[in-house]
Design goal:
10 helices; alpha/beta; 13% strand; two-stranded antiparallel sheet
Amino acid sequence: MKSRKGVAMTKISRRSFIKKTVAVGVGIAAFPMIFIPKAKAHWAPKTIVHPNVNNLRVVGVTDPKMTMNAELIPLTWTGQEKLVNKKAVWESIDKMACGLVDTRNPDEAWRAIFVKPPLKSWSDTVVAIKTNCIGQQHTRSAVMAKMCHTLRDILGVKPHNIHIYDGQHGYRMVGTPFQGLPKGVRIEGEWSGITMTTSVPPPWKGSKSDCVKHLVSGTVDILINIAMCKGHSTTFGNFTMTMKNHFGSFSPGPGHASAEAGLDYLIAINQTPEILGKMDDKTGKVLYPRQQLCLVDALWASESGPMMGPTGQPNFLAMGVFSPVVDYLVATQFRGKKMGWEPNMDATRRMLSDFGYNEGDLLAGGKIIEL
């Protein structure tokens, strides 16, 4: 099978796919999920984070049918909502799920992407969805609803165990009344706020910072990161996407204290157990993945930001499981090459190098696999 960009995608049989997934799941089950709030483990560079999906794989879909054409780009979330084609968006997200695990069956794909916590049933699993509620570009309802329905309808997660939050700007969710969610999904807003202190590893030199308490305490089993595609300062690469989305999971203050410390802090919080999952204290190996999916919603996107409305309507979505690689490829391939919004490459390269990678390590020659 080949993508439209000509990138080869290896076929696997349904039987071999299921065998592989089951085998990996058994391996994970050997490690009980015990979250320790004061764990000192540091993630070891290049350690596998997600067991079923290649951590370096990023897929994307561009489909003009996902939104209706408009004479003017709608600057408000409400205006954007009116133009979204839910059916096309859901089909695109299923297509990306299949592309991540190289299968044609969406249900099989989602069951590989989302890994059940050991010793818990899906009905008891708690899922947090980090969304972005600053400015005018928030997650569109069709994207959010698709993720919630997937969790309920395919995996069996109870809607009341799905929490949508933004610990910093969650109060803005009053202007983001998501439509089409399964009844019972909790729109938490700030979710009690960023109120619990936890350790933050190098390269940041601050040692500790505050975080959403439900991430520190271990309430959350699975974390889904749904980010917008917006501009930001050169400190963060001229953009804000999945990694910086966690400035609403951790206190954003230290990241804005100075340009020198800002990128260090951004990278460091994305290497914590709160985001990646419980780690082995000696090896830094992730024993159970917490952040299991990263999705960039660029149905509309902006060159500058983060407060402003969109400056383009590219009808684009991207997805992967490893946040630094998702951000690097979307920044360079989509924002840079496709949209002409050049990233600050000094900062952007660190999103790979500080996690132990360089562009030569990436799949498809360092490109998003277009489906």
